[in-house]
């Protein structure tokens, strides 16, 4: 039966439509472009794609500020294109999961607009308000150094609103049953468009109590069960992969003792300790992290990753360990972010050293869990530290030696393509690596094949 659980044997590839492939030449990646690249992904051997947010959004946080949950941003195409894409993926045996961003909306979302305008609106209580500035307004920021507070004053509403992240991302009042019902509706909608699950962002915040009096938020874990129950009724094989950077003691709260909550969680413990092991040549804390995260229900699975679209968060290491990783992989201030992490891509962190890159990948592909590969890492893409915050590691995919790496025919891509230095597209691109049997791309294809062939790894029992 366990063999039926596709997510245990998956190789997930995460990408952002906007920076993957631009088909219509406007400089922004789109679903038609992504469709043209499905055979590339199929050839690489990935079995699932995780799409970062693609809905209408002012794009002030790379789409994690959604202004309409039920649409596709016109810059990426139409809902029709989206369904063509999920169909094309399905034909190739590739499943699609997408980000579920329901901790907050964009401040441009009509719900928030109405809520701030009219105190009697039904949407007022969809957000979290306070008449006075809460005393802890300067606490709990997720983006320290950039974000100044977690409560901001809204002139129109004449009240303070809570935002765990940036001030343009007002938190939804997720304890409100109407909001909870809407979250299910959003999930149900996208399941009908062909996705088989969600990468749910910021789960601990979604389920936390929120409000001006809440100094110590409490997680309402039971909410996770209702999400799962709903999803399973609608589509038995769909999953939720939770972004929850939590301590091992609470893992079971997220998975559920009976495996009735989250199907998967990213293993942030292993991620941070793996980088420490690489930096310090000391694998003991990694072994400890593996032991600490071992207990889980039979149907639950870890998601393993090296780098993702955010900073490499080192917040769970000791101060000494963190400094060691900084020294080794991000010694310059401009490489670090939010007082806790490194914003670089994998290849430059490892000095472009093939042996170290292969070692890191070998670990990710053989430790217990489902590997999640970040687009571009399969060819060893670099970063552009001139770009602000996390954008440095979100530059367009490097396909070939054509202008703008073959990503777009436009003169102005959404973000500059890396075109200088050893990671420039002239040296690092998929077309050339495809022809070279010893390239990182072909090596990655081979390790993916091996991962799928080894049943221990498949089931996360290694
Ligand atoms: C989690 C996402 O991974 C991150 O990129 C985003 O900035 C925050 N959530 C806020 O939406």
Describe this structure in words.
This protein is an alpha/beta fold. It has two domains: about 1-100 and about 180-460, Alpha-Beta Barrel (TIM Barrel); about 110-160, Oligo-1,6-glucosidase, Domain 2 (Oligo-1,6-glucosidase, domain 2, Alpha-Beta Complex), CATH 3.90.400.10. The protein has helices at about 30-35, 40-45, 80-90, 110-115, 175-190, 205, 220-235, 250-255, 270-280, 285-290, 320-330, 345-350, 355-365, 430-435, 440-455, 455-460, and strands at about 10-15, 50, 95-100, 130, 150-155, 160, 195-200, 240, 265, 300-305, 310-315, 335, 340, 370-375. Strands 1-2-3-7-8-9-10-14 form an eight-stranded parallel barrel. It has a three-stranded antiparallel sheet with strand order 4-6-5, with no helix packed on it. Strands 11-13-12 form a three-stranded antiparallel sheet, with no helix packed on it. Helix 9 packs across helix 11 (about 320-330). The model has no long low-confidence stretch (mean pLDDT about 95). 1-deoxynojirimycin (NOJ) binds near residues 64, 101 and 201.
Unreliable residue runs: none
Stated plainly, the CATH topology of the largest domain is called TIM Barrel
Listed once per kind, the bound small molecules are: 1-deoxynojirimycin
Helix-strand category: alpha/beta
What string gives the helices and strands in order? EHHEHEHEEEHEHHEHEHHEEHEEHHEHHH
Strand content: 5-15%
